[in-house]
Design brief:
248 residues; alpha+beta; Jelly Rolls; eight-stranded antiparallel sheet; five-stranded antiparallel sheet; 4 helices; 19% helix; DUF1080 domain-containing protein; AL/BT2_dom; hydrolase activity
Length: 248
């Protein structure tokens, strides 16, 4: 009888270890973000909740949404009145350093927009991109502009070209999901469940790309280790919903 109980104890112990190892491997895999969402649901902040939605305001403005943005139920919409400079918005309540951001969006045909983070404000910064890296949102299929791979959907704009875009992309007007997971060891961008970008922030590779590319004349681009979350109005209608973030 003792041998039976001992055998059952050993089997249970090994099964538990295997389960724990499996969970650890899941968190370290490409789906680490998905698993942690359910495990740490209480840590998420809904940035469009009744309490938080009023914290969205124009970039470099004291309060309130610009004329080009409206709230339709639980959806934040850009009317496309902005341009390269002007019309962008930020969540002004607090800054984020290491974080996971999750949201849904859809865009008009040929539209152009972006999700920004680590954004800083000030008179010397005319737009979000003066300081903040960008997850590019774009319907490049219907765009009249010719785009290279650093400026298409799912890219880290001007820095890292995306992969898996053909697999992940949807037609203009359809809802998409995007996620950004930022830590000081690794950054990943996700589009409709597919990883599009992965890089190490402030690494030698990152610095060489910055110094040689689009951002060479923007000394404070990507420099901040924490900042505001921003959404771009680049002259296109775009809708955002289910904007959620958690600190890591």
């Amino acid at each position: 009888m003792k041998n039976i109980f001992f055998s059952l104890f050993i089997i249970g112990f090994l099964t538990g270890c295997k389960s724990e190892k499996s969970n650890d491997e899941s968190r370290l895999s490409g789906n680490e973000s998905t698993s942690t969402q359910s495990e740490n649901s209480n840590n998420w902040q809904d940035l469009l909740s009744e309490e938080n939605v009023k914290e969205w305001r124009g970039y470099n403005e004291e309060k309130g949404l610009p004329d080009g943005w409206v709230l339709e139920g639980e959806t934040l919409m850009s009317l496309g009145k902005g341009a390269d400079i002007g019309g962008d918005i930020v969540y002004g309540k607090e800054e984020f350093g290491e974080f996971e951001l999750s949201l849904e969006w859809k865009i008009s045909p040929g539209g152009n927009s972006g999700i920004f983070y680590h954004v800083k404000e000030g008179e010397q910064y005319e737009a979000l991109y003066f300081t903040g890296p960008e997850f590019q949102l774009r319907d490049h299929q219907n765009s009249s502009e010719q785009q290279d791979s650093l400026h298409i959907l799912g890219a880290d704009y001007g820095m890292y070209e995306p992969r898996n875009v053909e697999k992940a992309k949807k037609e203009a007007g359809e809802w998409n999901s995007s996620r950004i997971v930022f830590t000081e060891e690794k950054v990943t961008y996700w589009l409709n469940g597919e990883k599009t970008v992965e890089f190490t922030p402030w690494s030698e590779d990152w610095r060489s790309r910055k110094d040689a590319g689009k951002w060479k004349d923007f000394p404070d681009y990507g420099k901040a280790r924490e900042g505001l979350i921003g959404l771009q109005d680049h002259g296109s209608e775009i809708w955002f919903r289910n904007i959620r973030i958690r600190k890591l």
